[in-house]
């Protein structure tokens, strides 16, 4: 039995969850198709998901087609919950991107396709809702070619679109049970024939065969030569090359249908197991996997959702977990139970083998993104921009601050990008956000799951600080004003945008207290951790990015100096160097793409100007107008609210994080949550416990 780990991704309301239900029913995993509106689907299990009719958390279900177990992961479509998609991408063998035949290619559709292509995830496209009034599959296909993937290959056409009788008519021979082409065969295998003879094209198929060959010729010299010679290729040969190029994420077969009526879903189901590659499974290698989801059981116990890439894991095994090449402590724990996804649900099993997905109990310290067992050859990367907004969560009843912080910590465990920031001085907790809908969901979840009634302060943009120049400072052991028996010198310099914080040391080994740190690498790691923690709050309280920090001085007196002395002195020195360098506060800017009626351009432009949006291109296309440019992240929500009234409901806005730009006017500050090493007196008073 082979395994295929499949993601279903789409813009919100394109029909992902409905398609998941129909795939399960078509494969025989469920008897009846659940309804998103009625809250009876297999994957939207949260009460909040059922009330709102949207997917908030990714969910895993399983079904079997032929000899392939398909683990299907249904992901959220709303951009406020893109973090859930982020965690799933690294565990997929293939994906189905769902596009609505009515709304077409939307903002999140583009974002998702770019991420899938960057990761080379083999992807099929399903144009859903061909039965809906207003469905225009032809227009959507053109948009897919133009906006998503030039190598998209329509595998059929829609019959009677826009009506309840809409159907998918596949191209090629009438029999839709293909035998894939195998180059090792003496002759190409047939498609739709049982007598072994190559299947002839119907007249209507000639055009499809030509289009398919032209698409495949881009990456296959033999097909290109046949196209140039005018030599027709057997259908089996073309399908074989299509399978190969789909598996390498070079081609993207497109199917059409309706998850509600079932049109086209049977053909899509067969294509999933024939065109997408199954999981690689080296069970003889060391166990290595990834945690992509954390949940809690009925008794509050932690459950880790794991994709295993190699080896095997058994109940009662002791399993290492941690972050490859990232800060954070590794851990080890005993596996107490394993539930493997198969045939419609997760069932108890004594072991998890390579290529499969399971729920694992016992890993109490595991976090989302942790590697289990041996490190993977390729580390995780970020596929979407981090949140650019934040807000302070406020309990409406006095004395509930501690309970609120504990509840938010539980939510952050399941969504690390909530990124809690607790201010011990003001006793406040802030959370990071992608948008206002996410804030509403956090509010409802805290009320329903933890009995906490909360409100929010105004949502603000998360700025960063970049260096204006180079700064250097040092504190020397025994000198006046230095209360610590240690010497630390640091230099901080600007680095190119997007390079992050780089750390170096220029000190001699004899200046490192090896009786404390054992090795110079331990000293370097300890200093780096303190520097990174300190740079989380710059001169105006924002995280300092894109710089190089170098340790230029180090000194100690044995046996008086301790690791604590270096840890507490470093922030004072670093902030002195940062003050001398100076920083520029930069706000997040989103790129926007705005389609509006041409006659709405006049009312829209002044609003864009008031929101500090800068259109860089304006293209008129008959009755429509396309504007592209940049807008501060903090103003996107207001534009979304104003747009329907300005464009009679016809405006379409796409936004995604693009860059950070210096703030114009007065630079905003963020309240500090640390001991404030910018204020030497306050910092030392805090350390002495007198503040």
TrEMBL record:
Matches recorded under PROSITE patterns: G_TR_1, G_TR_2
Membrane-crossing residue ranges in chain numbering: none
GO molecular function: GTP binding; GTPase activity
Keyword Oxidoreductase attached: no
Superkingdom as given in the UniProt entry: Bacteria
InterPro entries tied to this protein: EFG_II, EFG_III/V, EFG_V-like, G_TR_CS, P-loop_NTPase, Ribosomal_Su5_D2-typ_SF, Ribsml_uS5_D2-typ_fold_subgr, Small_GTP-bd
Signal peptide span: none
Entry-linked CDD domains: Tet_C, TetM_like
Tr-type G domain segment(s): 1-280
Record carries keyword Ligase: no
GO BP term, example: response to antibiotic
Pfam families named in the record: EFG_C (PF00679), EFG_III (PF14492), EFG_IV (PF03764), GTP_EFTU (PF00009)
NCBIfam families xref list: small_GTP (TIGR00231)
Name of the protein described by the UniProt record: Tetracycline resistance protein
Native source organism of the sequence: Planobispora siamensis
Source taxonomy: Bacteria, Bacillati, Actinomycetota, Actinomycetes, Streptosporangiales
């Amino acid at each position: 039995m082979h395994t295929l780990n499949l993601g279903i991704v789409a813009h919100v309301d394109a029909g992902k969850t409905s398609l998941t239900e129909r795939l399960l029913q078509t494969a025989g995993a469920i008897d009846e198709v659940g309804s998103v509106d009625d809250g009876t689907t297999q994957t939207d299990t949260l009460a909040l998901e059922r009330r709102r009719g949207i997917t908030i958390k990714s969910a895993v279900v399983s079904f079997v087609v032929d000899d392939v177990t398909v683990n299907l992961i249904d992901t959220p479509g709303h951009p406020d919950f893109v973090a859930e998609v982020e965690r799933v991408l690294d565990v997929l063998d293939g994906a189905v991107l769902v596009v609505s035949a009515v709304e077409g290619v939307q903002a999140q559709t583009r974002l998702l396709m770019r991420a899938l292509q960057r990761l080379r995830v083999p992807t099929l496209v399903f144009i859903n809702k061909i039965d809906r009034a207003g469905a225009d599959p032809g227009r959507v296909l053109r948009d897919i070619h133009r906006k998503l993937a030039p190598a998209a290959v329509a595998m059929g056409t829609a019959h009677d679109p826009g009506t309840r009788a809409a159907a998918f008519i596949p191209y090629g021979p009438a029999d839709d049970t293909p035998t894939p082409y195998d180059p090792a065969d003496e002759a190409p295998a047939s498609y739709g024939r049982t007598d072994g003879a190559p299947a002839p094209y119907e007249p209507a198929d000639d055009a499809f065969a030509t289009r398919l060959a032209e698409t495949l010729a881009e990456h296959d010299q033999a097909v290109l030569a046949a196209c140039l010679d005018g030599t027709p290729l057997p259908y089996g040969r073309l399908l074989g090359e299509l399978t190969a190029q789909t598996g390498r994420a070079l081609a993207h077969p497109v199917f059409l249908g309706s998850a509600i009526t079932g049109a086209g879903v049977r053909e899509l189901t067969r294509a999933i197991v024939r065109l997408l590659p199954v999981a690689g499974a080296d069970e003889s290698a060391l166990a290595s996997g990834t945690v992509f989801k954390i949940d809690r059981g009925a008794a509050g116990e932690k459950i880790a959702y794991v994709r295993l890439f190699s080896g095997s894991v058994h109940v009662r095994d002791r399993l290492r977990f941690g972050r490859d090449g990232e800060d954070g402590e590794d851990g080890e724990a005993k596996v107490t139970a394993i539930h493997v996804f198969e045939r419609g649900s997760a069932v108890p099993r004594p072991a998890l083998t390579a290529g499969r997905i399971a729920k694992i109990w016992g890993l109490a310290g595991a976090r989302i993104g942790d590697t289990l067992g041996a490190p993977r050859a390729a580390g995780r990367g970020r596929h979407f921009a981090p949140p650019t907004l934040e807000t302070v969560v406020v309990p409406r009843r006095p004395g509930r601050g501690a309970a609120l912080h504990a509840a938010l910590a539980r939510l952050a465990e399941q969504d690390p990008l909530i990124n809690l920031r607790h201010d011990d001085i003001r006793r406040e907790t802030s959370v990071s956000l992608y948008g206002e809908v996410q804030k509403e969901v956090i509010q409802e979840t805290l009320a329903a799951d933890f009995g906490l009634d909360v409100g929010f302060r105004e949502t603000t943009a998360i700025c960063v600080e970049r260096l204006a120049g180079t700064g250097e400072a040092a504190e020397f052991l025994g000198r006046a004003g230095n209360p610590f028996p240690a010497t630390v010198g640091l230099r901080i310099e600007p680095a190119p945008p997007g390079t992050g914080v780089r750390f170096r040391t220029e000190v001699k080994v004899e200046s490192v207290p090896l009786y404390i740190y054992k090795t110079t690498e331990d000293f370097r790691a300890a200093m780096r951790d303190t520097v990174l923690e300190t740079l989380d709050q710059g001169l105006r309280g924002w995280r300092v990015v894109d710089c190089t920090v170098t340790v230029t001085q180090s000194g100690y007196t044995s046996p008086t100096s301790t690791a604590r002395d270096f840890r507490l002195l470093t922030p004072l020195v670093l902030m002195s160097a940062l003050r001398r360098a100076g920083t520029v506060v930069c706000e997040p800017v989103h790129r926007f793409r705005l389609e509006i009626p041409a006659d709405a351009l006049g009312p829209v432009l002044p609003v864009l100007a008031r929101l500090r949006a800068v259109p860089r291109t304006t293209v008129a296309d008959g009755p429509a107008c396309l504007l592209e440019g940049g807008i501060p992240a903090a103003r996107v929500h207001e534009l979304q609210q104003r747009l329907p009234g300005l464009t009679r409901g016809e405006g379409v806005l796409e936004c995604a994080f693009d860059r950070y730009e210096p703030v114009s006017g007065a630079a905003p500050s963020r309240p500090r949550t640390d001991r404030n090493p910018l204020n030497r007196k306050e910092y030392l008073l805090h350390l002495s416990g007198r503040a």
